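Box 3.1 A note on notation
Throughout this textbook, protein chains are presented in two layers. The first layer is the amino acid sequence; the second is a token string describing backbone geometry. Keep the layers aligned when reading.
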Amino acid sequence: MTEALDSRSDRVVAVTGAGTGIGRAIAAKFGALGWRVAVGGRRLDKLAETVLLMEQAGGTGLPHELDVTDGESVERFFSDVESEFGTVTAVINNAATARYGPLDDFSPAEIAAEIATKLTGSLFMARRGIQAMRREGRGGDILFITSLAAATPWPLHLPYAAASAGVEHAVRTLRLELEGTGIRVLNLRCGETAATDFATREMQTGRALDANQHWFRMNLLRHTGLMLPDDVADAVVAAVTLPRGHQYSVMEVMPTAPIGPLPATFEDWSVGVVENLTRQ
């Protein structure tokens, strides 16, 4: 019988959407463990920056162009990583794209891109990772990052929310498919996080202002706490390094409310968010 995978050593990790934000933070955290990390994304210059950061943390990085919505790109990614590092033992499905606004304001291409990146792309990555892990016979981890919007109706964010909900159902189903293989299927559901690529872009376009006002009125934004990519990355590492034999079913990571009164107006909320981010 093949020896079971150790929870903290002999690990090769593939991280999607690793050029910026949460993906970059995840790569750096695994690098700090001394693991070998393959970072995939569409912008090689950004991936090179991520590799430098994780190597400074003590890891070994491999940047590789990756379009998760393209099955052939996914295959090239895994083949090259396996040639360089060996079998991938953890797949981190982080890649996503999104924008804010009412559904009728989206083009068909925008809807398709959000769903293809979040849902279809994560299944492409999971499929290929599982194939490699089954051949190796030592198990591994497939982790899917989703959003609070997958479980809570979240207007002005519908294509991304629907894709995230689809991912969460895929997690539940895949976990049953893989029972007895040693491959864990993990779901990290995240609350509001600042400094992500699309959050920054939506601030610049002005769409974030309209969306945040709407969410505040609907009591979806109750306090001014926000997470940063490092906070999400810590949760990812905690899930993947959990000793074998048990796993987190759905792990939610949410920002805590700062000490003090809750914001009474949207203006109070906006000021509080800026103050909290400045302190972090």
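The first strand starts at residue 12 and ends at 16. The mean pLDDT is 94.
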